[in-house]
Every structure is written in C-alpha cells, then in structure tokens.
Amino acid sequence: MIVMKDVYKTYPNGVTAINGISVNIDQGEFVYIVGPSGAGKSTFIKLMYREEKPTKGTIIVNNKNLSELKEKEIPYLRRDIGVVFQDFKLLPKLTVYENVAFALEVIEEPPRNIRKRVMEVLDIVGLKNKARSAPSELSGGEQQRAAIARAIVNRPKILIADEPTGNLDPETSMVIMDTLETINSSGTTILMATHSKSIVNAMKKRVIAIENGIIARDEQRGEYGYEV
Q1: Residue 23: is its pLDDT beyond 70?
Q2: I need a labelling partner for 44 at 20 to 30 A (CA). Which of 22, 24, 30, 125 fits?
Q3: Alpha-carbon span 109 to 211, nearest angstrom
Q4: Does one domain contain both 76 and 1?
Q5: For the chain, what percent of residues have pLDDT higher than 70?
Q6: What parts of the sequence cross the membrane (predicted)?
Q7: What pLDDT digit, counting tens, does each position of 76-121 carry?
C-alpha cells in the first residue's frame, strides 16, 4: 500500500527532516509513528498525502508515484487517503452531518448516496444522534469522532491520523482508539503519529520510531520506547 525508497526531505531553510528513509507498509496494517519532537514524524506523515514533496527518493502510495504526480492529480490521490488532525478542523458553521457530507459533495457524489453513506459512518463512530448538532455543541472526543467520520466517508484505503488524541483525556482517547480499531478491522490501512506512550504500549501494533530523520526502530507489536 505504501512504499518509500531512499526518501529525503530538505526544507528551503536547509533543515533535513527526512534523511534516507526506506519502508514498506502493507494493506490493512495499523502502524504507529513515534519519536521525539522534531524527529521528522510530521514530515513523514505529510509526504504520504503530498502535503510535502520529497527532495529525493521514491514514494508510492496505492500504486501512485507521488514524485511524478501533477498538481491537478493530487485531489484524486487524496480521495483514497483520509486525514485526521489533532485540532479536528471541522467547519464551525456546518452541522456534524454537513461537515461529513461536504467531503462527498466536493467529489460530486449523487445526493441520494450522500445521506445513506453519511449516516452509515456517523453510526460507525457513534454520532448518529448528533447529526444535526453544531461542532461547538460537541465534546472534544465527539468532535474528533466527527472528524474521523469525515475522513472515512469516501471509503479511503488509507487513514492517516496525526496526533488524533493529543487534545483528549485518557478515557476519551481510548474511545477514539476503539473507533480506529473498528475502521482498521474493515481493511483500512492506518498510520498514526502519536506521543501517547500508554496507547502505543496497550495496543501492541507495528511501531516505526523516527529519530533525526531516520528510522531508528521498526517493530511488529512494538512499544513506545521513550520517556514522556
């Protein structure tokens, strides 16, 4: 599903955030991306959905070579990739239903399909009864679940989560993790960047540790491995 080969990313200020990474991630895997602040995790994640472009090397996501993609092709790449952020990024003037539906409207999904699919994913994340609520009426955990619903509504093959539990308390964080587990069990590949030692150690998934722009560890059923 994801192949990176000899990938480097150097920013215009001269900072090299990714320094020769090679890695393969298979369809259906659940992978934690861990490491100290400033290690290159966010850049690693952004390279996956072409938010950033590699300085050198090859990145193939869902059989698409990201280095060769034209700008006009990037939206089509992202139809197969859902992205969830720490700060939710919900549109405040839209209801939960409208936030999720918007992701289908922009790809011109027929209206008759939108309602059915939106209610399906709101059921998956446990927010069917909050469909008409505004984001401001939701708790932090509910807002994150709404963001997850929006990210998976178009059935992406890959879900990228960048610190999705970073602003949440431990109990709410585990609800989010249960939701991600459910999504993963349906075959969606999940990459999650996190600083949560407790989540990583409890869930026992593949762990890729990035330090100084390189892969320091890549372990099946790994642990967080850093003091927090």
Answers
A1: yes
A2: 125
A3: 42
A4: yes
A5: 100
A6: none
A7: 898 899 999 888 889 999 999 999 999 999 889 999 999 999 999 9
Half-sphere exposure of 149 (CA within 13 A, CB side): 30
Say yes or no: 150 and 175 in one domain. Answer: no
Token reading at 70: 């034209």
CATH of the domain at 43: 3.40.50.300
Domain check: are 95 and 145 in the same one?
yes
User: Which tokens go with 78?
Assistant: 């992202």
Structural domain including 138 reads 90-155
Q: 228 falls in which pLDDT band (50, 70, 90)?
A: low
Whether 38 is covered by a domain: the verdict is yes
Whether the predicted pLDDT of 15 surpasses 70: yes
Sheet bearing 81-85, strands edge to edge: 81-85, 158-162, 189-193, 30-34, 206-211, 214-219
